[in-house]
Structures are given as structure tokens and as C-alpha cells.
Amino acid sequence: MPETVISRLSESIFRNIKVVDSYLKANNLPGPSFDVDAPTSIDIGPDGEHVEEARVKALEGALELVDLLSGPMVALRPLTSGASLQAISRWDIANKVPIHGEASFTELARQCSVNAVDLRRVLRYAMCHHRLFHEPREGFVAHTLASRRLAEEPLLGDGLWLLGDMSWAATTRTVDALEKWQDQEPSHTAVALTMGKEASTYELIQQEPALAARFARAMTSVAKFSSRPPRLPRVNFVPTKPFQTLGTATVVDIGGSRGIDAVLLAGRYPNLNFIVQDLPPMIAGAEAAVPPALRSRVRFAPYSFFTPQTTVADAYVIKRCFHNWPDHYCVRIIKNQIPAMRRGTKIIVIDSLLPPPGTMSLAAERMARAFDMMMLTQLNGREREADDWRQIFRQADERFTITGMHPLASPADFGPSTGIIEVVWEG
């Protein structure tokens, strides 16, 4: 009788776990744990790329194995709920529990001004489904590693607010929004329906300065924290290869926020000058954070990519902006760059670049589809495949030529599957 799928998966998981386990023993490192004092991730050094690859393969195999052993009825009887994450975020429970102590359900309920029985129900769900907190003795709550990180790192709290509170509330209205509006306008989203205002998420945020500030911190959290071990090179950072052949050039970073990528690239390529463009609130005071040695080559200028470009440059970079917008808005953004472009000018897009369905690992595809649904719920944007990019640039102008597409992201990274789309203006 041929070997079963579950047997092959089990053997693959075991082989890859042995690689990780051997590395832990050889380097006298602790194994993964949910204990409150455990390390956040396996401390894999620069010599351990093969160990990280084995960790990811073991994780992917384990996901497949769990699904196979669970069977299809699990999907047909969904029991998942975001309510516990929403409560933990909104009531700031992580900061109400001592790091190495405990707090009773009764005391926490009093501080949160909610019913103690209901708080207990919510937290016990989070304990078994999300590994957030645990109950060391009946009636009392203590931290796990995850909840401790939430208490000690404010940016993680902002990230949980975005995904576990704001997004969760809107997710339940996604289908309603799709039935109500079918035009893919940024103002016709589940978030707009939830907020009761026909406006885009960005417009809604801009109407409330405190909300805008928290959203910005949440975006920083998404960019800063990864499940990839911190001593390994980040995969989703700004790629440098497209900039190696520019020579002496001026590069405009459209939607470049605080100029983090421009500073990194200016430090590596002394022949490149950068102009970082973004809305005035985003770039206000950003010059002060630029190292003095680079300030002559990293400048800032206010600009909205929904207006015609007036700054002439050799290359324009647009990083992780397009996936926030529907296709017809992306076409509009690209058209707006044409007035300042000369023949041979490059556009370097760093954004989602999904492989065809079924060609990714289960872990990678789940992450990609999760981000795609999040873009749909919040913005009517989307994660795109190669053909989607070809169509967008073709609609913008036939004189654009895509000269290369290269995937970047690791399936273990938290975030969409990122790639580089290199384009030349032939007009």
C-alpha cells in the first residue's frame, strides 16, 4: 500500500524539526515556549538561513497535517471569533495584569467596567484560541509570552487595535458592502458601512487626529515586527538591486512617508539623490531624522499622487501604495506621473506580487488571502498577480514597458507577498 499523505507530512515535519532542534542544542538556545519569560523567537543567527527554512517548512507541513486530520467539517462549523481580541484591545487588559503576577477576573472586570462572568468567558476563549494570557489558578489571570509582549510594546497594541478591533468590526459587514455597492470605490467599503459615513478609510481617519495617529502607529507596527528571527536579514525591506544600475540619478520616492527607505538607499548609493514625496502631515519634521551626512541628498516635498507630477526625475519609486487602491485609481496614479517623465524614465513598484493560486505553500497563501480580504474590507484595494500589473500599466498608457517582475517576500514574513515591478517609459 502506498505511503499516505499524512505519513509523508509527518516525516517531513520531523526532518525539519530535527534541523531546528540541532541548531538549538548546538548553540545552547532554549526551545520555543509560551512561558512569560521565554524568548519571542528562536535566536537564529546570520549563519542559520537553512534553519529558518526548516522552521518554515515544518510550520507549513504542520498546518497541512492539522487540516487533514481535522477533516472538512471544521470549516463547515466555524467557531472562530474576533470578539476576544477586540475586547483585549479595547479594554487594554494586557496593561492591567502584572507582568510576573496575576489579577482576578473580578478585579479586571471592575477596572474594565464590564460584567465579571462575561470577561471571564472572553479571556478564556483568548487563552485557548490565541495563547493570550493563562489561568494559573482558578479565577486568576496571568501573562503568557504573547500577552506580555502586548503589555511591553505599545506598537503591538496599536497593531492589535487595527486588526483585532477596527478590522474585526468591519469584517462582518464586508458582504453587506459588496451587495450595496459594486463599483469598488474607496468610499464604498465595509469600514464605511460600519462607521455610517460614505467616505474612504483614509478620509475617515483624517477626520479624527487621534485616530490618524493610532493608524500610523499601527502601520509602523506591521512594518517593524515579523515572525522571522530578528538577527536574520529582513526579506520585506526595500530591495536595492533596481537601484544599482541607475548611476548618477535623481529618484523620487512617491508616498515615501518619513523617508526611511530613501535614507537607507542614499547611504548605500552616493550617486543617488532622493526626493521623498508625501502629504504634508506625513513629512512634517521628517528632515530632522535624516543623518546630517545625507541631508544634501535626501529632501522632502509635499505631493499627492492624485495630482499631476511636476518633479522631473530619472526614476520614481512607489512602495506599498497601490495595494491600498482599486485598479482604476492605480491607473490614475500612474497617468499622473507621465507629465514629468522623459523617455527611459523608470518606475520601480514595490508592492504585492502574488504567485498563481495553488503554487504557494498553505502558510504563504493563507497570509496572502488574508491581506487581500483586509484590503477589500478596509479600502477596496487588493493584492495583485503579474497579469494584474500588466493590465494596469497597459490601461495607463501603452508606452509603458514592464521590464521585470521579481518576488521578494518570505512566506514566513507577516505581510503580503511582495515583489518588484520594474517599468520603463518609452514615450
TrEMBL record:
Q: Which GO terms describe its molecular function?
A: O-methyltransferase activity
Q: What is this protein called?
A: O-methyltransferase
Q: At the top level of its lineage, which domain of life is listed?
A: Eukaryota
Q: Quick check: keyword Methyltransferase in the entry? A: yes
O-methyltransferase C-terminal domain residues: 200-396
Q: Which organism is it from?
A: Lasiosphaeria miniovina
Keywords attached to this Swiss-Prot or TrEMBL record, sorted alphabetically, are: Methyltransferase, S-adenosyl-L-methionine, Transferase
Per the UniProt record, one Pfam family is Methyltransf_2
GO terms in the biological process aspect are:
methylation
